[in-house]
Amino acid sequence: MKSTRKALGQYMTPGDVARLMASYIPAGTTAVIDLAAGDCSLLRAVAAMHSSVALYGCEIDDAIHRKGQSSLPAARIRSGNGLEVRLQIRAADNSQVSVVANPPYTETEVTPSMTRLLSLAFPDVSTKLGYKRAELYFLARSLLLARKTGGIVSILMPMGFGDGDIYRYYRKSLMANYALLEAIEVQARVFGQTEARTVLLVIDTSKSVTRKVEISRFDAESGKKAVIYRGHLDAGERLDARYQEGRVFAASAQCRLADLGVTIVRGRVSYKESRDLAMPAVHTSDLSRARRGKLDIEVQTKKNAEENAFFSEIVAETGDILLSRTGTRVSWKPIVVKSGRAPITDHVFRIRVPAKQKQRVARAFKHPAFESWLASVSKGVCATVITKKDLMAMPIFESTIKQAA
In this structure, which CATH number among 3.40.50.150, 2.60.200.30, 3.40.50.2300, 1.10.260.40 belongs to the domain 2-239? Predict the structure, then answer.
């Protein structure tokens, strides 16, 4: 059922993605483990490429376990939680073990044994950020299982792990204790029931430090991988392909938004609060009503704004630039307030530019490179988020950059 699938984070791996993941299992591998085997699509892809490899796995859903086992009788799939089941790998299969995984993306109740998994796999991480996410523990156990024999881990993680600030410490530890070989951004909508963006991590556990990383993008429709960057990464640096694309724009910049005396604030009231208080606040959905980049907003008098101190610092006025801060299906184009005066919600940024810099900033926002740069700094799995810090560091795109782009 759909509700069960969502609760368990069950989204089966499409065949093209499964084949890509299986392709990283090296020759000479004696056993491959999948801790969240599902319908065995990953293990079937491995079996098709490595006929002599022993296959092991776990699956918590009894119905899916039976279906997966019947589709791959040669595999030893145990019923149970992949974070807890003790795998009984035959001695003959235990010389070169690798792991493939598309773990559940969901929150979980954390047990002492799970905490130990995390501390063993990431010994230099002490943060509590992200500690309730099940996929983090599946990554930890996968690393520990493969590391016993120096195997490869090919694991599909939510993009939040690749680009989110809260996982920066885990990325840093991963690069310091293992060799991260590749990070492959898998485009959204690959999984039919979710729009989650994902990143495939290929990790060599036989090495204790990352030297060079290849970052690429996989197009499921064409089945092709496009390499975006290959080289050194700073400790904990973001792993998404669009971020690496945006680095070239940032490197070319002679001036940034913060250098021009620009101020940026976000609203402090939610959309629901604005409706409950009957206040005419501008939300992200309102920005889509703009015509030719300009928007007329509902007028709130200065007297009313001053009487309601809650909104006093988050009012948008004529000439202000508004930009969505977060959302899923929103307009990511900067919108100029043509007329009116009203508060903004906490999903909207208000950008104010000194008069003498307005034309320069307007040209930068309209520059062809702006959309690519904005995509490179945005974060998130389903909903996308940009930060004030990112915006203040925005390059002021000039004609020279336009030619380079």
Answer: 3.40.50.150
